[in-house]
Amino acid sequence: MESYRHHIKWLWKTSAGFRMSIMAVGLVSVISVAVSMFHVWVSKHLVDIATGSAEGRLAPYIILMAACALTQILFYVVISHLETKTDVSIRNSVRYSYFIKIMESRWAGKEALHTGDMLNRLEGDVARVADTLARTMPALLATAVQLAAALLFLGYLDWRLAAVVVVIMPIALLLSRSYIKRMRRLTGEIRSTDSRIQTHIQENIQHRTLISSMENTGHAIDSLGEFQDDLKQQTINRNNYNLFSRSIIQLGFSAGYITAFAWGVSGIASHAITFGTMTAFLQLVGQVQRPISKIARQIPTLIHTITSIDRLGELDLPQEEKGEPVRLAGQLGVRFSDVDFRYPDGTVNVIEGFSYDFKPGTMTAVVGETGIGKSTLIRLMLALLLPDKGKVEYYNDEETVSASPMTRCNIVYVPQGNTLISGTIRENLLVGKSDATEDEMREALHTAVADFVHDLPEGLDTLCGERGAGLSEGQAQRIAIARGLLRPGGVLLLDEPSSALDAQTESLLVERIRARLGRRTLILVTHNPRTASLCTGTVRMS
Fold first, then answer.
1. What is the pTM of this model?
2. N or C: less crowded end of the chain, CB within 10 Å?
3. What's the half-sphere exposure (Cβ side, CA atoms, 13 Å) at 11?
């Protein structure tokens, strides 16, 4: 029960800002139920007048029935419109909020979830929650009102029949803990396998060139087939269990309808009731059964929603420290003082007792073999990671501050490899500085030895595919460097900036960066001795 209370609280919190829309859907749905009850009353009197059991004119009741039908159609259109509008609004809001949480989460050395799994949750699970709030909850309210109204009306006509109908309906089965528990387990298995499929597809499409070169395409295809076979079997198992449960429920429905029909025939034979009353009885039995049937169909939906809430809850990742950016003026230095760092799942320190002062205005190379801790050093400078011991500080002539997410504004960071995003070259450059002028972009491209951009048919408006598709690795790398150079900041941090460049281009790149460096401090991380020799100082990690 405590678990379900948590889920209810989560839905209530998530619905903030949309409760009026949800209530509007529920209200219109309830009014629609009232119209359906009125339709039963009208049909009873119409049949009684037609069979001579009651006096009156047929025309007014026929008009009322037509009005009920038209009103129901109108309500259907209104409800559908409100549901769609509310669903899309909630979906956008929830997806937006979790996207922010992911983007602003604290990095702990590795991602908590795979990208494909995150995408699956941001799409499938968010859609499920939105559908529940916009459609299922108002529908359950209307269903409850319909059930209560139908039972009251039925009881008004004959309380004994109402009692029989209630008793014979297997409501206890619908609410059984065993049913809900098993459906939750089966649904969780399906959602987990679905995420594995999306992750597999994303990874293999993203790395299809590598997979093809290693002649591993067949294995990738076969693995997807196995995952999909698992998903198929899990879905069938859940469906079979659900069908079995609902079949038992349907038996109860049939028994209830047969009982009402037999009672009506008996009443007509003994002249105890009219044809109109029997018509009303049969309609009301249907109005009792339909809500219960709806509830039965909604239970799997609610279980899906519970699973989705649990999966979205795993995206509530620890958040980075927030605050106003701390900008330091003038020339900046970066000082490491006896720094130790070990990843949470590690057994030894990646960095131990490291001390070094990257003095203002210097040009320093950080060298070392792969896996020695160069990337970790970068993450400590960026405050993506915090030291277990010691301090990482930024300083100028007047003040010293500890490295934090708020000091990140002082760093121009260019990561290694191809980091371009889908879009034009111009759009990629504007990521570095959103208001950069044409001259600024031209200068940055020149410094990064990327003048080739101006010779392209579309120039700055040349489209780049995913991860710079359409450009060579070296071209994409130089554009990424130009993008970083546009960003203001007193410390320029380059991670393997020339890994895809030839010696001549590399020398020209470093020469131009040094010429443009001005008062900036340059830290160049590399494992290439040739690149390190172009700097004025070297830090060797071991």
1. 0.70
2. N
3. 22
